[in-house]
Structure formats: C-alpha cells, structure tokens
Amino acid sequence: MKYNLAVVGATGMVGRKFIEILEQRDFPVENIYFYSSQRSAGSTLIFKGKEYKVEELKEENILNKKIDFALFSAGGDVSLKYAPIFSNHGTIVIDNSSAWRMNPEVPLVVPEVNAEDIKLHSGIIANPNCSTIQAMVALKPLHEKYGIKRIIFSTYQAVSGAGMGGLTDLVEGYKGNPNKKFPYAIAGNVIPHIDVFMDNGYTKEEMKMIDETKKILHDDSLKITATTVRVPVAYGHSESINVELKKDFEISEIFELYRNTKGIALKDDIENLVYPMPIDAEGKDETFVGRIRRDFSCDFGLNLWVVADNIRKGAALNAIQIAECIIKDKEK
Ligand code: A2P
Question: Are 302 and 216 in the same domain?
C-alpha cells in the first residue's frame, strides 16, 4: 500500500532531511506535497528524480487534498495553528516542534523506546527534542534493567539544531562575518544557552530534556538536571550523561547490554582511541555510545558519552520511523 504525504517546512534543514530519508528508506509514497512559508513558495524540490513545486502553507492548499501523513518541521507557531487543521482533515501529523510535546493527549515517541504509545494518538504525535531522543535510546535499556534514580545531562549541540540560520552563522562566522541567529559568535566559541531562559534560570532546551525524559520513560519520580550548550560543530549532538542507577551493575554487563540494543552502536575501545564523535555520527542512523565508566563518586553511578546525528535520529529519521511503525501496525 502507498500513502499520500505532506512535508511542512520542506525547504528547511529538517524538511530537506525528511525528503532525503524518505528516498533512502523507499517509504511507500503515492503522492507527496511540499509546504513552506510564502517566502519559498513557488520554488522547486526534487523527490525521487521528479521536480515538485513548493506550496504556501494555507488552508485552501491543504483541504483540497487527501493526505495520510504530514511531517512537520516549521516551528512551534506553525504547528500550533496547522497541526489541528491537518488532523481534523484525517491526516496523522508527526510534529518535530516543541508545541505539542507535553500535551497529555499527544504521544511523545522514540520508536526504540516507547513505540507502544503511538496508538494512543488522536491525530497528532510529537517527535521529541533532538537531545532528548538520543539520550532516550541510550537510557532506556538501563532504565529497564536497573532502574534510574538520577540523571545529569550536559550537552554539546551542533549549530544545525538551530536550522539553516545556525549553520550559516558558523560558516559565515569563520569568514569573519557577524552572527545573525545566535546571540554571540559561534565560530571559535561555546554558548551555554539554547532556546529562551525560563523563570527558574534554566533554558527551555534544558527543561525540554528534563520534562520529555519523564514523559517518554513514564517515570515522574526521576530526578534530572541538565545544562545544554551550543558548540561550533555543524552536525551531531554530543552528550555527557551521568546516571545513578537503582541497582548495582558490572561494567561488562553494560557493554553487553549496548551490544544488544537496537538503534545503538557501541564505540568504546579506549586502548585504540575508539569513542563516539560527531564527525563519525553525521549521516548515520544509530546512536553512538562510549566512554562507559563507573562514577566512583556515588553508589551505582555510571558515565556515558552519547552522540547522534541531530538532524537524522534527532529529528527527521525519528519522525519517519514513527510513520513506519503506524504503517506496519496497520498492515499487520
Ligand atoms: P521558508 O523556506 O519559506 O522560510 P529552518 O528551521 O531550517 O530555518 O526551516 C524552517 C522551515 O519552516 C522552512 O521550510 C520555512 O519555509 C518553514 N516556515 C517558516 N515559517 C513558516 C510559516 N509561517 N508557514 C509555513 N512554513 C514556514
């Protein structure tokens, strides 16, 4: 069976990755429609060798079509307004923005972690924050086997997470041109500030990691803190994850667990200087885990270094995997 798809924000960083991955995975597409703002409307995009005109996102351009899945990545405001319009018209929306993630009616899904939540949807499914997704892939097997008490996230996030504008700031910054997207130059710098500051002194990105982790792992008792940082890397988020488990473990068991976890590539061989780095994760589907070692400062503590391509597993791939789960279930 083939499906009609819409890509909303098709001309953006994640939008273009949706197109690439749909092609690579040979997603069963009958018709595909591309939407952008008025700015890029009328431009063309290529899908499977065929040219398509990008349409302006407006109601009249949606309601004249029968669309099975809409993949959204055009920012929170666009999702808030247009996701219900699509879903009321019978489309399943998979939304990459943060607009719907914490809505109790909306499942927040990483397929390797909580695919069972997908079926609870009523038209909208949320894709978690990029940093949350890779952390969940790494933490789920630990949560299942040992239980998790506390997590400390420290992230080193690529500029592509801020869209085309983020990448432009890095490239232009190295040419000596001023920053436009970030509050400071990112070339040769590190900015401990992603998304807006909240009343509690955390950034919204940090609170997303904290709140989304609890929702995805179905565990409000988790104690979590986070510091999220932008670094001058084009693609691939890196994370130091310090986790306190509820039960003791052997390091060899953790290696074994990661060797056998779907979606994980274990990269940990310090004698041969093997550890995950964004340069190796770019363009890959897996979440890379390494630098696995005991945290001697507390009981049952563990340190991990987790890297993934933020635009693939952190955004476009995860959303497409959600759609694939729905199709698999439907065609069973
Ligand atoms: P456009 O190319 O017309 O600006 P990125 O995150 O890489 O900057 O991409 C954002 C994506 O979201 C782009 O495709 C952009 O289209 C789209 N977009 C931004 N604002 C709107 C809007 N109001 N309506 C529809 N699409 C939008």
Answer: yes
